[in-house]
Amino acid sequence: MNDLAPVPAAKGCRETPILKERGQREVFCGLTGIIWLHRKMQDAFFLVVGSRTCAHLLQSAAGVMIFAEPRFATAILEEGDLAGLNDAHDELDREVGRLLARRPDIRQLFLVGSCPSEVIKLDLSRAAERLTEVYAPKVRVLNYSGSGIETTFTQGEDACLASMVPVLPATDRRELLVVGALPDVCEDQLMELLNGFGIDTIRCLPARSIEADVTVGPNTVFALMQPFLGDTKEALERRGARHLPAPFPFGEQGTTAWLRVIADEFNVSDEVFEAVTRAPRDRARRAIAQAAENLNGKSVFFFPDSQLEIPLARFLTRECGMTAIEVGSPFIHQGIVGPDLDLLAEGPIISEGQDVDLQLDRARAARPDLTVCGLGLANPLEADGLSTKWAIELVFTPVHFYEQAGDLAGLFSRPLRRKGLVAGLSPRLEAAE
User: Fold this and answer.
1) What pLDDT, on a 0 to 100 scale, did the predictor assign at position 20?
2) Is the peptide bond between 206 and the residue preceding it cis, with omega within 30 degrees of 0?
3) Would you give the DSSP letter of residue 170?
């Protein structure tokens, strides 16, 4: 009954030799994850301990007006803090006290490390323990690193969720834990599908509120929503939970394969699976076919940016008719993206890490129809005549599951359609001149 397209002839890309590069990288800051995390956890507050540059980054990335009351802020390290003239712990305690007095709605407070706080070796884990003793049980204080020194920007979410796992209550009940921050519209669709299977012991990490009954134990199985949650996966396994490896739910095929793994785990019959998924699968196929008209037969090149590259390459090649030239990722966790590599036909270069100059040379030589890259590379590549897609947009936009499958294909087709419109307009402009 499962009519997934067959696994490609030969063996996919799981055994493909990985080109590992170490050199100059083009990366974005891990603090960026706060932008989608603070929207998800409605009783949480993210206090970045950093510089004015950190504050400007968050303010511009979030697009928050000065009069708004966002659930994040920056405790700015001044020159005296950086020089060791002030006791940064005393000053942090004072700022946290002022914050919680003014915002009694805060139930979870995350102290988020940054490049400056890590350079001066400010111990935020000790600060979190100290503040928890002061404000518990009303407020839970945790800490994690959002520094971009050694990580890519999506690992900010991974570090945040991993910091929550040790304090989750223990349980022995049989349950499914869905791990990864989803937009509410995607989470609601997920719950409808899983409830249709008859699975009712479902928890989400992160939950929308600390009041949600999120627990973990030896009878917990968990499915990841994002391929960049390696530290969170390991933290859950240390608590006794078991990972369900699956392709990620991007597109119709990926979503069906992801749901099939969960259905098999909970002994959902083929008849129930078909009844629940048939209609949304049909809608997803039609939406992808319409959006992918400009993608079929085109080539794509992925620069490493978000760790979403391998699942997205699988989606574009299997469901949109594209050919992958190179699929680069900051880090390749075989235990997480292995199922997607199995479904990615042999052919592309699979690269891990980055030497940005060498990779730019390969992209310019290959002349792909579409290049997926970070913001810092998009303009230079566009100037070279290459169409680009900003990788970060794929993290900020709802793209999971059936109802978003057409939108996901549309995100990739728009740059090509726009280039086609510009090319069609150029002769008319020249004639008018």
Assistant:
1) 93
2) yes
3) B
